[in-house]
UniProtKB/TrEMBL annotation:
InterPro entries given in the database record: CoA-transferase_III_domain, CoA-Trfase_fam_III, CoA-Trfase_III_dom3_sf, CoA-Trfase_III_dom_1_sf
Cited Gene3D superfamilies: Crotonobetainyl-coa:carnitine coa-transferase, domain 1, formyl-coa transferase, domain 3
Pfam families: CoA_transf_3
Residues covered by region (Disordered): 1-21
Record keyword Transferase present: yes
GO molecular function: CoA-transferase activity
Protein name, entry field: CoA transferase
The UniProt record lists the keyword Amino-acid biosynthesis: no
Keywords: Transferase
Annotated organism of origin: Halostreptopolyspora alba
Amino acid sequence: MRPGPGNQNHHGATTEGDRPLAGVRVADLSRVLAGPYATMLLADMGADVVKVEHPEYGDDTRAWGPPWAHGESAYFLSVNRGKRSLAIDVKAPEGREAVRELCAGADVVIQNFRPGVVERLGLDHETVAARNPAVVYCSITGFGTGHEPAGRPGFDAIVQAESGLMRATGPPEGPASRVGVAMSDILTGLNATVAILGALMRARATGRGEHVTASLINSALSSLASLSQQALVTGEEPARYGNAHPSIVPYQTFRTADDDIVIAAGNDSLYQRLCEALERPDLAADARFASNPNRIEHREELVGEITATLRTRRAAEWLAVLTAAGVPVGRVRGVLDAVHAANAAGDEATTTVAHPTAGVLDLLRPGFQLGSPGGGGGTLPPPLLGQHSTGVLDELGIPRERITAMAERGVVFAAEERSDAPRR
C-alpha cells in the first residue's frame, strides 16, 4: 500500500488515516456506472481514487441530464464522490504515458474499456503488471471475457433481458419489466469491490497482484439466487408473481383504504400474529391456511380474505397495528419519501458534502457504515472535470512547465487553473 497521496486531500491536508483503505491509490479508468460505483465504495473506505477522464467532456454521465445541480448532472453526482479528477487524453502520447505512470504507482487499476482498446493503449493488465507486479487490476465487461460473440457491448437493459431478471419482474399477466434502476451495473460494482478487496488482502500479504474480472451478465445471473435454483431443480421457467412471493404466502403488497402496504409473514408464527392483529381468528383456524404449503395452494382465497379486511382501515392505522403485533410490514414509498423517512428514523441515509459549484449537496451514503472517522461516505465531493489534474500530475513528477504545455495543447484540462472551467 502506498502512503502519501492516499492520506491527503486535494489541498494537501491530512485526511482520516484510520479508515481501512487509507494509503491505497486507485487509478480509475472506468466510466458510466459499474466501475465508478465500485471506485466510489473504495473511496468511501478511505482509498485515494484518481478518476481519469477525457479532457473535453469527461465521464459520459456528466452529460446525462436533466436533472442538474448548478450544471452538474445528478447521475454523475450519484457515483463519483470521494474522487479526484485527472482530465487527460489517453490517446495522446504524453497523456498515455502519464496515465501509465499513474498505473505503475497504483495499488488498484480498474477499467471498462471496450475489448481491444486497453491493449492498444498499453494499459492492459499484462503491460501494467510488468511494471507493477503487486497491482490489483480489475476489468469490467458487459458479457465477460470468454463470452461469444466476443466484445459484445453490455448495457443494463440488455443484460436485464438476457439474464432472466427482466422476465422475472412484473405482473403475472403483464409484460416483463425492467427493474427501475440499473441493477446489473450496481451489482457488478459491488462484485468488483468484493473481488478487489480480497485481492488486496493477498497483495498485502504476498506482494503478488491479481487480475480480477466482473461482468454485468454474471452479476445479474448470480443475483437470481433462489429463483435460478428453482429453475435448475424443476427444469422449468419460474412463473412471474409481480409483488407476491413464489414460495411464501402472505408476502406481498396489499391495498388498504387509502394506500398500499407490504406484509411479509415469512413463517407460520408470523401468520398467526397477522391473523390476530387483523382480528380474523377464522383465518388462523382454517385448515386451508394451516401451513405455508397450504397457504401457497390456496393463495387466491387467502389473499382475497386479507385484502377485504385491510380495505376497512387506512394504511397508517394498519402500520401501527401490525408493527405493534410484531408482523413485518411497510408502506410502499416513493424514492424521496423513502430517503426522508430513513433519515427521520435515524438511519442516516444521506451524507452532506460541500460541492464547489452546487454548494451544500446531499448524497446517498453507502449501504454500510464504518466505525472509523468519515466511514459513512467519501470526504471529497464529486469532482469538477479536471479539478485535480495539476495536483495529480505533480505527484507523478511531471514538471509544472510541461503540465502547462500539455494543457495548452489540449492534452490536459486543468480546471483548477482555469476560471472558465466547464460545469458539465
